[in-house]
Design brief:
There is one protein chain. The chain is an alpha/beta fold. It is 25% helix and 16% strand. The protein contains 15 helices and 21 strands. Strand 19 and strand 20 (543-546) form a beta hairpin. The longest helix is centred in the first third of the chain and has 16 residues, at 180-195. The radius of gyration is 24 Å and the shape is globular. The two termini are 37 Å apart. Bound molecules: beta-D-glucopyranose. Residues 64, 67, 104, 168, 204-205, 274, 276, 339-340 line the site of beta-D-glucopyranose (BGC).
Length: 564
């Protein structure tokens, strides 16, 4: 093993999430593709990201836009070819950008040859590669388990005369990962991409990967503990069960430990597990710590703490403190949005004033990238992009169609293509191609990258400057975090203590200016050079004004160790 490999590069690295359909369309068919990503890798490098996570681009019937994989080791023609991916890797390596791909571990598409084989016979080689079970005496499904995408989690298959399990769409059957042969086959797929040089994987929906072998019914959750998700008037049936038997099963740890051992044979690679489900903040922290215990399982876990209702300052504190309070040594990851939820600025929904939204986006990007952990920026975060209000006839997401009009834009609101240039909206709306995929909506024109690059005050230029500045302050990347008590409910305040400096970080998450007393008892706070400081502060004073969505970083000189 070479001594020069940095095995911890992912700690505090900024990972830029790419949803390939919507990132960059290089051939004008209305759908983003791999050559489009390659073309824009310089943009991501210039932004200051250290790596990219590319959502699935593998062969798929696209019922769930790539999360239904029909061949793990090939590129779907709409995204390009394997050679396109090799070119992408080559350029990423030149730019020193890490590349992480998605591993969909819980299920395949029903078009995958494994499923075709499995459904064809009860005695064939792959007959138990999926979760098959006989009907109950009365013909109904084997358990009361529900699909996350609505309805029962079991579908009857005429060929086998049995039900199969599907946590998501009926066309996405769950793999039976209790079977070591299935685990081996999955790991062979991982090896394929590791051999092509990828730097890591994101494991999709991984806590669903095992089910109770005895097929016991889930208990229900008492109604008094339930409330609808913000923006919906009903409680989803899925939330009415306590997922004791179809989620977070003990055998998952053994499987993930096998995956980790494989990754450890490729030093410098890392794996991040998606931990989503219906649980409290405390449970999320427990699960995250458990599945990312240092050296054993995932290197880090991507959780959903900030992807629900607009997070309050208290939630930021609670989530980060919970993630570090365990005796378990682990490293958290954070995101404010992704391809499964509404975009940040829309979920926040605080102002109709674009100028204020712009400042809000800047502060949130700065906050995300100042927390202890690895920040994931979703494409469009760097632009302060809001949701596209997708009309029903343009909806693509099966979940959005199922929940319309209760869940207004479904997951499509945050999946519209990045607006690169002003005329992108015309190009995608004016032709039939609009129906291949979502268009760039005309209301996104003012957010276009070509505009923002030329506007010194844009979210894009701010985010770039901030990420560059962050690199000069390793305390924000590796430093310990300590939240500071204070009396302003809209302010997030914490210290990051690195080897050479300690920074006091304050963020105003409200639309009004706040005058406050700096809540730490040090006399020698200092402004930091080149800091993107938006507050008003007299050196030596403890009084500070933070404008609406303003923030500041002060250096705590007396705590700065090893200073010259
Ligand atoms: C992905 C979703 C997908 C689901 C099923 C997730 O958590 O992020 O986009 O629909 O897994 O694969």
């Amino acid at each position: 093993m070479s001594k020069n490999i940095d095995t911890d590069w992912w700690k505090g690295a900024v990972i830029y999430q790419i949803y390939p359909r919507s990132f960059r369309d290089s051939n004008g068919d209305g759908i983003g593709d791999l050559p489009g990503i390659t073309e824009k890798l310089d943009y991501i490098r210039d932004l200051g990201a250290d790596g990219i996570w590319i959502c699935p681009f593998f062969k798929s019937p696209m019922k769930d836009f790539g999360y239904d994989v029909a061949d793990y080791c090939d590129v779907d023609p709409i995204f390009g070819t394997l050679d396109d991916f090799k070119r992408l890797m080559e350029k990423a390596k030149k730019l020193d950008l890490k590349v992480i791909t998605d591993q969909v571990v819980n299920h395949t598409s029903d078009q995958h040859p494994w499923f075709k084989d499995s459904e064809s016979s009860k005695i064939g080689d792959k007959s138990d590669w999926y979760v098959w079970a006989d009907p109950k005496e009365d013909g109904t499904a084997p358990t009361n388990w529900l699909s996350k995408f609505g309805g029962p989690a079991w579908n009857f298959n005429m060929r086998r005369g049995q039900y199969y399990l599907h946590t998501f769409l009926p066309s996405m059957p769950d793999l039976n990962l209790h079977n070591p042969e299935v685990q081996d086959a999955f790991m062979d797929n991982m090896k394929f991409w590791l051999d092509l040089g990828v730097d890591g994987f994101r494991f999709d929906s991984v806590l669903f990967c095992m089910h109770d072998r005895y097929l016991k019914d889930n208990p229900h959750v008492p109604r008094r503990h339930l409330k609808p998700i913000e923006g919906r008037s009903f409680i989803e049936p899925y939330a009415m069960q306590d997922h004791v038997y179809d989620f977070n099963q003990p055998e998952a740890l053994g499987f993930i430990n096998r995956l980790r051992k494989l990754m450890d044979q490729h030093p410098g690679t890392f794996m991040v597990g998606e931990v989503s489900g219906t649980f409290s903040e405390e449970q999320a922290a427990d699960l995250s710590a458990k599945y990312s215990e240092e050296g054993k399982y995932f290197h880090t876990v991507y959780n959903f703490s900030f992807l629900g209702d607009a997070p309050t300052p208290d939630l930021f504190r609670q989530a980060v403190e919970n993630s570090t309070r365990h005796g378990i040594k682990s490293w958290p990851s954070w995101a404010l949005t992704n391809h499964d939820v509404s975009r940040t600025i829309t979920r926040w929904n605080r102002s109709n004033d674009p100028a204020q939204n712009r400042e809000m986006s800047k502060t949130l990007n700065a906050l995300l990238c100042s927390l202890y952990g690895t920040p994931f920026l979703y494409q469009g975060d760097e632009l302060g992009l809001p949701d596209f209000e997708v009309p029903y006839h343009l909806l693509q997401d099966p979940l959005a169609v199922y929940l319309w009009p209760e869940w207004k834009y479904g997951r499509d609101g945050g999946r519209s293509p990045l607006p690169w240039a002003e005329n992108d909206a015309e190009k995608t709306l004016d032709t039939d191609k609009a129906f291949n995929w979502l268009p760039v909506p005309p209301e996104h024109v003012p957010y276009a990258i070509e505009h923002q690059e030329n506007d010194p005050d844009s979210v894009l230029n701010f985010t770039k400057a901030f990420l560059k500045w962050r690199k000069q302050h390793p305390a924000l990347i590796h430093g310990e975090i300590t939240f500071v008590d204070h009396s302003e409910k809209d302010i997030v305040c914490f210290m990051r203590a690195g080897e050479k400096e300690t920074l006091l970080c304050l963020f105003n998450l409200s639309g009004t200016a706040i005058d406050m007393t700096i809540p730490v008892a040090v006399n020698d706070l200092e402004r930091i050079e080149n800091i993107p400081f938006t507050g008003t502060w007299e050196e030596t004073s403890h009084e500070l004004t933070l404008p609406a969505y303003g923030f500041c970083f002060l250096s705590m000189a007396s705590l700065n160790k090893n200073r010259a």
